[in-house]
Design a protein that fits this description.
The complex is a heterodimer of chains A (about 375) and B (about 325). Chain A is mainly alpha-helical and about 375 residues long. Chain A has 15 helices and no strands. Chain B is mainly alpha-helical. Chain B has a two-stranded antiparallel sheet. Chain B is globular. The longest helix of chain B is centred in the first third of the chain and has 30 residues. The chains are: A mainly alpha (about 375), B mainly alpha (about 325). At the A-B interface, helix 1, helix 5, helix 6, helix 12 and helix 14 of A face helix 3, helix 4, helix 10 and helix 12 of B. Chain B: Keywords: Cell membrane, Membrane, Transmembrane, Transmembrane helix. Chain B: It is a multi-pass membrane protein.
Chain lengths: ~375, ~325
């Protein structure tokens, strides 16, 4: 029952579509259960996320977060690793962005700060993934469990740092001071006023995210390291026989993955909030899992999945405004269903599909 | 000083109980080879089910049943995905956590209109503390009095159930035929299959057992310790239970001690808030909160003895190659 039995478009198009359709069907049932009209809800959701400039802006803003965390999970997937720690890595990545911005914002314009912020966030995120990766590689402790633990440790650490060390003097809020101009990425609305993004915080980090997609594609499919990562993920034992170092592959993959997750903080901290604050990640790291699953760990798929989840976030906000009984928790339910159907139950429809496609393929074989 | 110790231990017991129940739940599942990071979600779902039904019926026992039903249903979903469909167990667990977090808040808001919370429970809807015989009379006796009166007496029935579940779990897993097979299927499903025993049915029974215990854990939070369901009231306890399970190296008695240790850390962190320690100064409360996770990572790294999971944990069983 492996993928080779089906045409590519079925494998990469039809089956993911069916899984997604099932997830949305069940979501619709939940809406019915609450006593609202699901079609009406879909209409509000789509209009709220794509119907006007500001809505599109917010959709793209959320999508930027998901591209980073989705890529992070995807890169680890290729090596057969499950990095469930995007949440913590992004949170710690915020430190790197904040350090760069706090240090530089008085002196240089944003385009000088940005490379340092990218470097800082990637380094901090990677550092937070290093220990789980290293422990899996050398001591065999499972990366899933250690990254979960590191999410909680990150959260405690950040609460401590923001309350005791980084806090703005004299402030009651657990947050750093607000960055000056040199620590703020320009909003896309200021660069392209004709799009009418309005107050949407979508900013230049969208292009950083898209750049990261290209780099990840190059890395995974066009470099020796990428080949090693994929070989290791496909069959670790064979890869080791072929001379690929498991320790190096695991550690390097986790560093890249953590770095990508950390970069999510650029969008939130430098692009939108302009200060480091408590709980700015709020689940984006976990959504990365759904995004990577839906995007089949390919950068193009991840961009599409990110936009879809961005729509859910923005449209969901609109929806909770228009239909107060559908709170924003509905988005969490939909995410759960997408993870369930596109991830855990991905093989549910496959046997039926294979049965459907086998006769026609057999006929073709006869003709040929 | 002694009194402080007794009070701290008393709250240790209260804080350990949900961890212990969830930890034993995970023990059944993982010993059978089904990794369960959805403990958090099942507990949360159970807490909601218990809180909602206990509020409507004003009956704590019906609440407990409802909690168990929700949790077992989520467990069966996990089983359907990871046993029947051979899906990824981690992904399935993550999905269950999401579903529980979203659905409890959403349905709670729809049904009770209080921001996702259930209203405060009526009188019969809660498990009350049970005062043991003579607890009041011997309270004045030094040492024995507080020990018996505070620490042993005066908990609700779910606390006692949790601690009784430890020897019971030990007996089931290590002395019954079912337990032998359950452990075998977690180590070598192929061998169990060859012996003519259904791997699928064994694993399903394990996830059902896991669901029942998670149901107790969730019900404890909403209708025994608390007086109603609150949004995200598990707040990571499912993951601490998971950490405790690893810390205990998948053994029932060790699970109890691990949960007591983690509960103790929690109790101490509450008690130490804002207090100076002589010579050290104030230890940040976040340090205590992170300590269970840090200890687990250190253990996983093999620095406190090696934690070796059941061999087949996380691997779906495929009966025949196709």
């Amino acid at each position: 029952m492996n993928s080779g039995q089906l045409p590519r478009w079925v494998d990469f198009g039809l089956i993911p579509f069916l899984n997604l359709a099932a997830a949305f069907l069940v979501s619709g049932l939940v809406v019915v259960l609450i006593g609202e009209n699901p079609l009406e809800a879909v209409k509000i959701l789509v209009w709220g996320s794509l119907g006007y400039g500001e809505g599109i802006g917010f959709t793209l803003f959320y999508a930027t977060n998901f591209i980073f965390t989705g890529l992070a999970v995807a890169v680890a997937f290729h090596a057969g690793l499950f990095n469930i720690g995007g949440e913590g890595q992004a949170y710690i990545g915020g430190l790197g962005v904040a350090f760069a911005c706090l240090a530089l914002d008085h002196y240089v314009p944003w385009y000088v700060t940005l490379p340092f912020a990218i470097l800082g966030s990637a380094l901090m995120g990677a550092a937070w993934a290093l220990i789980p990766g290293w422990l899996q590689a050398t001591r065999g402790s499972h990366v899933v469990i250690t990254t979960i633990m590191f999410n909680f440790i990150a959260s405690s650490l950040m609460v401590y740092l923001l309350n005791n060390i980084l806090k703005k003097p004299g402030s009651m809020q657990s947050e750093t001071r607000t960055f000056e101009e040199g620590g703020r990425l320009p909003f896309l609305n200021d660069i392209f006023p004709s799009f009418g993004f309005g107050y949407a915080p979508v900013n230049l980090s969208l292009f950083v995210a898209l750049g990261a997609c290209v780099l990840v594609w190059l890395l995974i499919w066009r470099t020796k390291l990428g080949f090693e990562i994929r070989s290791f993920g496909a069959n670790a034992t064979a890869a080791v026989y072929a001379g690929i170092s498991p320790v190096k592959t695991i550690v390097v993959t986790m560093l890249i993955s953590g770095g990508l997750a950390g970069m999510m903080a650029i969008n939130e901290i430098m692009g939108s909030q302009h200060r480091l604050l408590i709980d700015f990640v709020t689940g984006y790291g976990f959504v990365g899992i759904a995004v990577a699953l839906m995007g089949r760990a390919h950068p193009v798929g991840i961009v599409l999945a990110s936009v879809l989840f961005g729509m859910l976030y923005q449209g969901g906000a609109e929806l909770s405004f228009e239909m107060p009984s559908i709170t924003r928790d509905m988005i969490i339910v939909i995410q759960g269903l997408v993870i369930l159907f596109a991830g855990a139950l991905e093989h549910m429809f496959r046997p039926t599909i294979v049965r459907l496609f086998t006769p026609s393929r057999a006929l073709k074989a006869k003709e040929a | 000083m002694f009194e402080v110790l007794i009070l701290t231990l008393d709250s240790t017991v209260r804080l350990s109980t949900p961890l212990l129940l969830a930890c034993l739940a995970g023990l059944y599942s993982e010993r059978s080879g089904v990794v369960d990071i959805g403990l958090e979600g099942k507990m949360l779902g159970a807490a909601f089910g218990a809180g909602a039904v206990a509020y409507i019926t004003a009956n704590a026992w019906l609440g407990l049943m409802a909690g168990i039903a929700v949790s077992v249903a989520l467990g069966l979903l996990h089983g359907f995905a990871s046993i029947s469909n051979r899906g990824n167990q981690i992904v399935s667990g993550v999905a269950i956590n999401f579903l529980a977090a979203g659905l409890t808040a959403l349905l709670g808001q729809t049904w009770f209109q209080q921001g996702g919370r259930t209203p405060s429970l009526p009188d019969g809807g809660r498990f009350r503390d049970i005062v043991w015989p003579f607890a009041e009379q011997i309270r004045e006796v030094p040492f024995i009095g507080p020990l018996y009166g505070e620490l042993i007496s005066g908990h609700n029935i779910l606390v006692y159930a949790a601690f009784l579940a430890v020897p019971l779990t030990w007996w089931v897993l290590f002395r019954s035929r079912f337990g032998l097979r359950l452990r075998a299927v977690g180590e070598s499903p192929a061998a169990v299959d060859t012996a003519g025993i259904s791997v699928t049915w064994l694993r399903y029974r394990a996830v059902i057992a896991c669901g029942i215990l998670c149901g107790f854990a969730g019900a404890y939070l909403s209708i025994a310790q608390g007086s109603g369901f609150g949004v995200n009231m598990t707040a990571g306890k499912g993951f601490i239970a998971l950490a405790a399970l690893i810390f205990a190296k998948w053994r029932p008695a060790s699970a109890m001690f691990a949960c007591l240790l983690f509960g103790f850390l929690d109790a101490v962190s509450i008690r130490m808030q804002g207090q100076e320690l002589p010579g050290i100064g104030e230890i940040p409360v976040q340090f205590f909160q992170a300590l269970p996770y840090i200890l687990t990572v250190i253990l996983l790294a093999g620095f406190i003895g090696k934690a070796i999971p059941p061999k087949a944990a996380g691997i779906p069983y495929l009966k025949e190659r196709s």
